[in-house]
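As the next step, I wrote out a protein sequence along with its fold in token form, included below for the reader:
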Amino acid sequence: MSHVIFSLLLIIRIIESFFHFPLHIIFFIVSLRCENKKNKNRSMEQQTEKKVLTLKTLNKSTVWDIQENDIFRMLESADKDAEVKENLRHFVDIIRSAFMIEEIIPGDSKVIQTKYEKLGYKVGQVKLDNDKKITWAIKKRPIVRVTDLTYENIRHITAAKLIEVLDRNFGGGWDSLSQSIKDIIESGFDISTTTLPKDRLHKKGGLYEKKLADGFEVLEVAKGTWVEAIFAKVKPEAEKPRMKFNSYNEDEEDEDADVVIEDNYNKPDEDDIEIEDPNDDEITEDNYSTMMDLGSGDPDEEAENLSDYGEE
């Protein structure tokens, strides 16, 4: 038994001398790396789950993330969900917002189906009303013009794709776009422009070079001897703020509970109060007064002053 213990201690010493660390630290590092790997795998699994869309989670924005084959798969699984079957028309309307759908009549020949496939359509059977199977030809709506851009699909294209769309549609520069199109583009991309002479645009260390280094895509629009450069970069999606509501606690004392509100609704306003005329029977020598100030000085002195005023 002592030989076994001695052998284990010797092995531990050899391992420690080889790694130049105590064995318990080595075990800690190994376990920490294993835990990090598990967390990474768990995070990847969660992201994968988020990317898996179903008809229930589909909306007019996320529908741009799926392809034609995904639609056939979703509609096939919809047959097993009673809630989805009841609202199937609603989900089909969402699909139509991002895909072109053509129904192939059973009497049509294989030539028609082949024609759609050559145009880039995916052909398959779906079950909609009354469990009747129909044949669909589906193709995602192309984004080739600026008028194809919407608030729903703008975040589902790359900056390179945006530059391609802009390059195909106009030659008048950024200001030639309508304000509504600009608003849609700027909701998903950081846009900046500059107009410089041709020989100065690509100046070393200038704005053009810095924008490319920051990951911007650029479109150059010639304007005579000048060039307008339009820079575009995907805007990071801001996290939507969540509203917080304070829970009401009945045990907390209401600060305004002791405040007494005076009811003045039926009380007349000051301007509406009528002043009664004085009663002659109530007037006496003590309470009667006039508006003329007769003075409170010596009557003889006041008489002299009046006489002097008369002589003048």
Q: What stands out?
A: The chain has a mean pLDDT of 76.
